[in-house]
Amino acid sequence: MVEKIDAAAHRHVGAAFTAVDSTAIRVHRERCAKVRNRNVECLKCAAACTSGCIALVEGELVIDAAQCVGCGTCATVCPTCALESLNPSDAELVGACLNAARDGRVVVGCGLALEALDGLVDSAAVVPVVCAGRVDESLLCTLAARGVREATVLCGRCDRCAQRHGAATAVLVAETAQTLLDAWGASLTVRVTDEVPQFLLAEGVTAAAAARARDDFFADGRACAPVVCEGGAAADGPGESGGDIAADAELAAGDSAAPSEPASAASPREAGRGPVSLSSPEAEAADTTVGPGLRFFWNSGHSRKVASHSLHVMKDGTLPHFVPDRRERLLDALAALGEPATSSIACRLWGTVVIDGTKCVSCRMCATFCPTGAIEKFDEADGALGVVHRPADCVKCGSCADICPADAITVLDEVRTAGLVDGDAHRYAMTPRPVSLSDNPHQILDTFRLDFNGDIFER
């Protein structure tokens, strides 16, 4: 079943992503920057998906869970870890790599490539994954901290494989990891290649023979098998009770959606009727209210029980934060490598937020929607207010810049290496500013407070 959502809207994005939830990929939609606020542009998962499970087609986000191969490439590029790879998990992959290490060398191999090389390599010395895109920077830096000197990501003939995007992600990860390792003076070398390392070849097997076997295997093109459940249907994951985070994000922004009409008994789509847009009247009619805060959402032909308001705004007016465990492990690995050898780095993983005080309107929406809490509000007893930014917690999702109403935020690529380990923070003091009184009469109070040095009180 194929689902299509207007990528500029987000009301149904969270529910649609739940369809991908399976034994291979866990979906934490409350972490998704796009789900939390529709104005966030992040769709890295769609750009990196290797199978067509998640794709951006002419402005529509198309999710076809039946196409998911469980490669984990989407999880590798997701800045907030809203998509988590379980096939294998990060901990399982680290353990497997350390067990397979030979003389300080680790090889992680594409499953199809290893299938082509069956009997030609030492299978105990290579760790299989569905696709090379599964490897991420936290794995490579953890291996470096554990004494590994060489990490090879072994691909097949990616030009003849449907999962070719995975190789592009593997190269991106290798470049980023090497930047980090060089900055910390680590000796680990990372490479992505389709050439089998000599030490991995079985006795009597030549590199030429291995290359021929690989080319013959990929001669007619290859694709990984989809992750399916019994009966051949797309897997329904364990996350059926997740909330409608989109609705909460809109409410927090003052942009609540109209409630759905109750569905009739004949609303849900029968199997085999083909693709449908989740923003269509048919999909709207299939939302069935089942109790306070709950409803059944029709998704991929299945009724799903979801909490419509499970992500509550916290006392400080922000949505809940979550720093991905993968990022914490990466920082722990870098700390274990010692002091950085360079003062700054520029890579895909972290950013430095710069706020232009001449444009900022002090709304602090950046802190409201920051997924990790890297941008945090402060309100002090003397009346000082503003935000604090911690680059170490930043995942460079771009939420702050995308949703800033005054276009006052720039996210720089370069970050201080010492700040990543020490948790340095940047403090931005702000001034309460009135807005147009016609937009919100309550802002009259702010106007008077500015004119009378704050000596205005409500009763």
What's the short version?
This protein has helices at about 15-20, 35, 45-50, 75, 90-100, 110-115, 135-145, 165-185, 205-215, 245-250, 280-285, 325-335, 365-370, 400-405, 415-420, 445-450, and strands at about 5, 25, 55, 60-65, 85, 105-110, 125-130, 150-155, 190-195, 275, 290, 295-300, 300-305, 345, 350-355, 375-380, 385-390, 410, 415, 425-430. It has about 450 residues and is α+β, with helices and mostly antiparallel strands. The protein starts with a strand and ends in an 8-residue tail after the last helix.
Write a structural description:
This protein is of the alpha+beta class and 459 residues long. The chain folds into three domains: 3-86 and 227-307, no CATH class; 90-217; 341-451, Alpha-Beta Plaits, CATH 3.30.70. Helices cover 27% and strands 18% of the residues. It is built from 16 helices and 20 strands. The strands form seven sheets. A four-stranded mixed sheet has the order 3-4-1-10. Strand 12 (294-299) and strand 13 form a beta hairpin. Helix 7 (137-145) crosses helix 8 and helix 7 runs parallel beside helix 12. The longest helix is centred in the middle third of the chain and has 20 residues, at 164-183. Residues 229-310 and 453-459 have low confidence and may be disordered.
Helices and strands, with pairings:
Elements lengths: L2 E4 L6 H6 L6 E3 L5 H4 L7 H5 L5 E4 L2 E4 L9 H5 L5 E3 L4 H11 L4 E6 H6 L10 E3 L7 H9 L4 E5 L9 H20 L5 E5 L13 H11 L27 H8 L23 E2 L3 H5 L2 E4 L2 E6 L2 E6 L17 H12 L7 E3 L5 E4 L9 H5 L5 E5 L5 E5 L9 H5 L5 E4 L1 E3 H6 L3 E5 L13 H8 L8
Parallel strand pairs: 1-10, 6-7, 6-8, 8-9
Antiparallel strand pairs: 1-4, 2-5, 3-4, 11-12, 12-13, 14-19, 15-18, 16-17, 17-20
Helix pairs in contact: 7-8, 7-12
